[in-house]
Amino acid sequence: MKQPDGFADLARYYDPIMDHVDYDRWFVITSALAEFAPDEFTHLDAGCGTGVLMGMLRRIGWNSLGVDLSLSMLRTARKRRGDLPLAVADLRALPFHREVHLLTCLFDSMNFLLREEDVEQALYSMSSALTGDGILYFDVVTERMVTEHFDGRDWEEDNPGFRTYWKSRYNRISSISETSVRINTGGMAMIRERIYPLSFLEEAVHKAGMALLAVYDADTWKPPTKRTTRVDFIAKRVVTAADERQFKEIREHVLRCLY
Ligand SMILES: C[S@@+](CC[C@H](N)C(=O)[O-])C[C@H]1O[C@@H](n2cnc3c(N)ncnc32)[C@H](O)[C@@H]1O
Q1: C-alpha 48 – ligand 1 centre gap (Å)
Q2: Average pLDDT, the chain
Q3: Does residue 183 lie within any of the structural domains?
Q4: SS3 breakdown of the chain: % helix, strand, coil, rounded to 5?
Q5: Best mutation site among 52, 74, 90, 112 for ligand 1, i.e. most ligand atoms within 8 A of its Cβ?
Q6: Atom of ligand 1 nearest to the CA of 7
Q7: 68 Cα–ligand 1 center, Å
Q8: Residue 96: which domain range?
Q9: Is 156 within a domain?
Q10: What is the pTM for the complete model shown?
Q11: Is the pLDDT at 91 greater than 60, yes or no?
Q12: How far, in Å, from the CA of 187 to the mean position of ligand 1?
């Protein structure tokens, strides 16, 4: 059955709305992780949205592939960033098998999966897409992000040429945050994200046949604390002692560049 495209009315406004977002951080970490990949490698951005990260990587010569469930997000990516290799695909059923050297799934795309089994299926699908030596980098937002910055708030934002009206509510029982965005031109979107305990995500990574290299607070690249609002996960199908040494160097590079 065809699912409704939750981003249909939002997609063409997405980039100006997200203009303040620090994509440089994802760019620095993603490009650093390519140290693990062979000289010629395949990068897949899963849940690529409007292709902001892909566009940045293209500028350093990468020809990344992008998939997303939302056709309207992919159409906007094409319109804004030209001829990117894009396809509609679900995180839970990626159309790749042992082909991807570096897989990213960022800006809380994983939180859009609303059932535990969806997350497990997505991680299994990502693990299957990776080559034996492939690496996965995904992130999630925490309950702290939602309760601190969004829950119970109604607010408006001015953007060039349009205004957005936001309303956000978090249900602590279902762990689902619902944020509605209305655009003054008439468009409307409902963004639903589920918050998952880190212990569940760590276990799901292992169940999907991968081992973790890092679970870090995105703002410090140190272990998460109760103040953490976003968490970066880095996993490989197999983690050797050499991988751990290499990752230590990558982490030092990232810390030098970002923190
Ligand atoms: C917050 S946006 C992030 C987009 C992009 N990664 C970025 O950094 O701008 C979340 C994206 O996840 C996509 N998404 C949600 N559920 C998905 C699924 N099951 N399969 C593939 N993409 C999905 C949405 O369509 C949306 O483009």
Answers
A1: 6
A2: 96
A3: no
A4: 35, 30, 35
A5: 112
A6: 25
A7: 6
A8: 11-143+197-258
A9: no
A10: 0.97
A11: yes
A12: 18
Ligand 1 atom with the smallest distance to the CA of 26 is 8
Q: What is the CATH number of the domain that holds 254?
A: 3.40.50.150
pLDDT band at 5; cut points 50, 70, 90: confident
Examine the pLDDT at 127 and tell me if it is beyond 60.
Answer: yes
Helices (H), the chain: 11-17, 23-33, 52-58, 71-81, 116-129, 143-149, 198-207, 241-258
Task: Tell whether 152 is covered by a domain.
Answer: no
**From ligand 1's centre to the CA of 42, what distance in Å?**
20
- Side by side, which strands form the sheet with 176-183? 153-159, 162-171, 176-183, 188-194
Q: In the structure, what pLDDT confidence band is assigned to residue 220 with cuts at 50, 70 and 90? A: very high
**8 A C-beta contact, residue 136 and residue 29:** no
Measured in residues, the chain has a length of 259
Atom of ligand 1 nearest to the CA of 122: 19
Tell me how far apart the alpha carbons of residues 110 and 104 are, in angstroms, rounded to a whole number: 11
The predicted pLDDT at position 3 comes to 67
Q: Which ligand 1 atom is the nearest neighbour of the CA of 92?
A: 19
Q: Report the number of distinct structural domains present in the chain.
A: 1
Rounded to the nearest angstrom, the distance between the alpha carbon of 216 and the centre of ligand 1 is 21
Classify residue 181: in a domain, yes or no: no
Determine what percent of the chain is predicted with pLDDT higher than 90. Answer: 95
Adjacent-strand bridge partners of 79 = none
The span from the CA of 150 to the CA of 144, in Å, is 10
